[in-house]
Design brief:
Elements: E1 2-9, H1 13-24, H2 26-33, E2 35-43, H3 47-50, E3 59-61, H4 64-69, E4 75-78, H5 84-95, E5 99-102, H6 105-121, E6 126-127, H7 138-145, E7 151-157, H8 160-171, H9 176-185, H10 194-197, H11 200-214, E8 224-225, H12 233-241, E9 244-255, E10 258-269, E11 281-288, E12 292-299, H13 303-322, E13 348-358, H14 363-373, E14 378-383, E15 391-398, E16 401-402, H15 403-414, E17 419-428
Helix pairs in contact: 1-2, 1-13, 5-6, 6-11, 8-9, 14-15
The structure holds L-homoserine (HSE).
Residues 134, 159-161, 188-190, 196, 201, 300-301 line the site of L-homoserine.
């Protein structure tokens, strides 16, 4: 039996879930993996939560460095979140020759490559399965199952909170605020839910998927990010009439030797497999050049799905220590065959657009004239019944257009006197 000593740093929802799983599955883990996993330290800044630790052989502290100084610790579990202190803890743990498990997506999105390189230099294993997709083993699938492939595309619904809000709005029962409150009550939303709504949480996760899946050294700020804050129930309704569902989609795709990396609300055809991913569920749809298309679906957040993945990472590292077969995260720049990022303005896509215009003769002609001058071809247009005395929604689908042209056209249209509210435009993915 291989003894594995754990230092658990961060005892919030996931940390306490990890402790529960390790305690309840001790016999199971021994029998299945030949590991005797013991939590030697629990660390949290909040003294109140430390009172909940079932002590036994476990020591408690509010100073992470107590854990890092302990020579008997084999694996440090970082669950404190944030990027500053967490980075310091992880780097110091690696230099103290402790293996690391983390669920910290923001940290890996910004410093993943740097951390993996330090770990590689120190012969230390880092695992982060819970950083993307909670209970979905997508990181392991990319590192192992897809290793022989060159990826063409990743589409991901990877923020449960946004998906929950959009689903509830589409059902017509909730408005945005009520849906967000319920996601917070259920414990899915980030401590700062702005990260969910703004698309940043999805972008953090997309950066990790790109780093591991495409082996591309993505610079986080090169990811285009747009959240769901501007989506109205009416847009979901109009999209439905055209046969589409609105999802917050994280997209990475190979395009003529460069990579598109973007997060934004997206119209997906109702028949698309991701259109049917509802509520807090996450799904990642991948296309590799050998394997073809694969779909991963499951609970993307929550105490036990996430804690379960953290414990799987612990077992993975423990098993490799037992068999003396270390496995590092290698990030090569040479094999991805990508020469850079495609800027958002260079992307060609179809659009859904909604204009809030005064209902009077010539309005439609003015809008379509501006679109035509910017090379934007309209595929269909509908003028809806007036909702207020003056303003009428004009809803359109375009053919494929250049994003830069669309941006310019919308800016010009929004400056017209006849336009009474900011125009809405949502990209369409029909592949
Ligand atoms: N806030 C995240 C979500 C939690 O809603 O998906 C999981 O990363």
């Amino acid at each position: 039996m291989k003894k594995v000593n754990i230092g658990l740093i961060g005892f919030g929802t996931i940390g306490s879930g990890v402790a529960e799983v390790l305690e309840n599955r001790q016999k199971f883990i021994r029998e299945h993996s030949g590991l005797d996993v013991a939590i030697k330290w629990v660390c949290d800044k909040n003294h109140a939560v430390l009172k909940k630790v079932r002590l036994g052989q476990t020591k408690i502290t509010s100073n992470a460095y107590d854990v890092l100084r302990d020579k008997n610790i084999d694996i440090v579990i970082e669950l404190i979140g944030g990027t500053k202190e967490a980075k310091d803890v992880i780097v110091k743990a690696i230099k103290a020759k402790k293996h690391v498990v983390t669920a910290n997506k923001a940290l890996l999105a910004l410093y993943g490559r740097e951390i993996f390189k330090i770990a590689d230099k120190n012969s230390i294993m880092v695992r982060f399965g819970a950083s993307v997709g909670g209970g979905i083993p997508i990181i392991r699938a990319l590192r192992e199952g897809f290793i022989s492939n060159r990826l063409d595309r990743i589409y991901g619904i990877i923020n449960g909170t946004s998906n929950f809000i959009l689903t509830k709005m589409a059902d017509g029962k909730y408005d945005f605020g009520k849906a967000l409150r319920e996601a917070q009550e259920k414990g899915f939303a980030e401590r700062n839910p702005e990260l969910d709504i703004s698309g940043m949480d999805s972008a953090h996760k997309l950066a990790i998927l790109i780093l591991i899946g495409f082996r591309f050294p993505i610079n986080f700020k090169d990811i285009y990010v747009e959240g769901i804050g501007g989506i109205e129930a009416g847009d979901i309704e109009y999209a439905k009439e055209y046969g589409y569902t609105i999802k917050l989609l994280a997209i990475a795709k190979r395009n003529n030797g460069r990579l598109e990396a973007r997060v934004h609300p997206t119209l997906l055809p109702n028949a698309h497999v991701l259109s049917n991913v509802s509520g807090i569920y996450n799904a990642i749809h991948i296309k590799g050049d050998l394997i073809g298309e694969s779909l991963f679906y499951g609970e993307g957040a929550g105490k036990f799905p996430t804690a379960g993945t953290v414990v799987s990472d612990i077992i993975d590292i423990g098993s490799r220590l037992r068999t003396e077969s270390k496995d590092y995260i290698l990030v090569s720049d040479s094999e991805n065959k990508l020469s850079g990022i495609k800027k958002i303005g260079e992307i060609r896509t179809r659009y859904y657009a909604r204009f809030s215009a005064i209902d009077k003769p010539g309005v439609l002609a003015k809008i379509s004239g501006i679109l035509a001058r910017h090379n934007i071809s309209i595929a269909s247009v509908t003028q809806k019944e007036r909702k207020t005395a003056q303003v009428v929604p004009i809803v359109m689908m375009t053919h494929e257009v250049l994003e830069a042209d669309m941006q310019k056209a919308i800016r010009t249209i929004d400056n017209l006197d006849i336009i009474k509210d900011k125009s809405i435009r949502i990209k369409v993915e029909s592949e």
